[in-house]
Write a structure and sequence with these properties.
- By secondary structure, the protein is mainly β.
- Helix content is about 10%, strand content about 35%.
- The chain has a single domain (about 1-140), classed as Immunoglobulin-like (Sandwich).
- The chain has one helix at about 1-15; strands at about 30-35, 45, 50-55, 60, 70-75, 95, 105, 110-120, 135-140.
- The strands form two sheets. Strands 2, 4, 5, 6, 8 and 9 form a six-stranded mixed β-sheet that branches. It has a three-stranded antiparallel β-sheet with strand order 1-3-7, with no helix packed on it.
- It is elongated, with a radius of gyration of 19 Å.
Length: about 140
């Protein structure tokens, strides 16, 4: 009898965690995110610039909208791609544009920086397959 109680408790715990391990949202295989501006190698004077973000074969929407073939941009600054099976972090290296923005005013300190876009679904999870841009490098003076 004790074994059945433990098994039932274990099953309840697994079911409670199920949303955390839900399948990733699918995306069309021909979807692509891209950085419109700045271009790779751009030298930016003063540190402030408008980042313009593009998306092909999918739509941009605010976070929380759970419909097929949409998502919102995340700008990765000076970092590598996060684990694709986890939520995209939110910190100074992972900027979230959960209102569905396609452009944003960015300020970076002088130096060499990398920028890359990663599309997230309604829960800030990368799609399957993931939709991301080429990583570019800019220089701020």
């Amino acid at each position: 009898m004790r074994r059945a109680i433990i098994s039932g408790a274990l099953a309840a715990a697994v079911l409670a965690l199920a949303p955390a391990f839900a399948a990733r949202t699918s995306s069309p295989e021909n979807a692509a995110a891209y950085i419109i501006w700045p271009a790779d190698g751009t030298v930016i004077h003063g540190g402030k610039f408008w980042a313009r973000m593009g998306l092909r074969n999918m739509g941009v929407c605010p976070k929380g909208v759970n419909i097929p073939n949409v998502g919102h941009h995340h700008l990765l600054i000076d970092t590598d791609m996060p684990p694709l099976g986890e939520q995209i972090p939110s910190d100074r290296n992972h900027l979230h544009f959960g209102a569905g923005e396609t452009e944003a005013r960015i300020e970076l300190p002088p130096g060499k920086h990398t920028l890359q876009l990663l599309l997230g679904d309604h829960n800030h999870m990368p799609h399957d397959p993931p939709v991301y841009s080429k990583k570019i490098t800019i220089i701020v003076r």
